[in-house]
Amino acid sequence: MPTITINGVKHEFQKGETILQVALRAEQEIPHYCWHPGLSVVASCRICLAEVSTPDPKSGKLMPATKLSPTCQTPAVDGQVVHTDSPKSVANQKAVMEYLLINHPVDCPVCDQAGECHLQDYSYQYGRGESRFKEAKNKKPKKDVGPNVLLYSDRCIMCTRCVRFTREVTGTGELMVQGRGSTEEIDVFPGLALDNELSGNVVDICPVGALLDKDFLFQQRVWFLTRTASIDGITASGDNISVEHHDGRVHRVKPRENAEVNRWWITDEVRYGWKFVHREDRLKLPQLKAREAFDADHAAEAWEAGLSKANDLMATAAKGGLRAGLLVSPMLSCEDAFLLAQWVLSHDPRAELAVGPVPVHGQDKTFPGGFTMHAEKAPNARGVRRVLEALAAGRPVHDAAAFEKAVASGAIGTAVVTGNYPSDWVSNGLAEALRKVPFMLIDTLPTALTGMAEVVLPGAAWVEKSGTFENAKGRLQGFDRAITPVDFAKAESQIAIDLAADREGFRPEAFDGTAVRKRMAAVPGLDRFTTQHHATPPRATVESDMVLVEL
To answer: Which one of 127, 203, 380, 541 is most buried, counting C-beta atoms within 10 A?
Structure first.
């Protein structure tokens, strides 16, 4: 393969890559602002300039660099020698940083971007120790550019990433550059607002604190946040995300790069759709019908009573020759579905299995940049169906309408129903049908079924557990638990394990996703849970380059 030498280190590359791409892939830093892998190359910020010596195509002799070249725009050539640490390159880096900070307010202590700001980092690594600019700074306004985004114009360095995003990725073109020179500003076109389905991504790609998320503004310092790899738990997209949380609360959700799924983007629906996790009316303790509610001081007793009642309900139905039914929500993980179905089938091997309602809003929408927003608002309808069909051993797996009809007709004598939707999901028909039979409910939010069920067990939202989702394209992706379940709620997988342990009379074990997937793979038709399972990347350890001095 062809090679290129960057600051004395030789790297292999593929034809078509630029010098900057080669360096970044090799984790060799070259400072850059305007370049982004998902956007066109404009080479306007100039901080990535370097001395580039290229072999003469005829003689093969290395030609000395006559000027600094933008590494983001210069193609890599076999035998090239690049220096970003030469005196000329370093002088350019210092000059660019000095120019960018001339009119910058340097308000890092009150800026939401502090702690993850490229201007802050590069000022420390490549800038001067003090400013030589003594004149008055240009003052620029703060602008409300859309329902989710604020623009602090005086912090902007005019990298134009946001403008290119609205033109090239969303195709909506709300943003523009107005003015010239030091009075240049980003703004929205008259009569338009930054109000497309992907608008929040401009906050992610802004390298400084110019574009800020209204929802996260002044909520939390980023250095207090823990980042956990997860998967979109709202829609069928399977978008890779990072859940950022602190002290048991989610504070924001951001996209996680995956070239095969969502590239660098997520929809605003996914970005802000997690709020139900911290709703005040979350179900937090087991509830038994016709019995006084348990309080927090008796949580262990509540769970013991709830598990026992659920097993008694199933055992009584089996003794009476009644057929059991299980409705598994498409909001649950594949592991949840597997363990719950196994528990139900242990009571009634002929139990009717069904996939819960799958919400669909509108139609799929593909943007000019290639990103697709899915109309299906459930993360795991395919995964749940795959698991239930494997366990049903040839018997049909119903949809929600067929399950409702079977309950209403009396074909199902007792039921286990799961919810976990971000909003009320119960249809009038399902509620009326379930009035006729004793049933158990596992859910996260109160619905019309909560007061009707014989026993209610509080489940966990997807950010409160680990598991696997299968997206609209059939890709199996694992996600990690970000926060612990609220109060005394439990993940559905753990509830299923506890139910099985209560029935058999032994101490329950803790849920182990890897072990459960191995069990799943042993079932005909589910081997892909070990052969085609995409796990989350290992958590990286970041070491600070700050020098600590003991006082």
So the answer is: 380
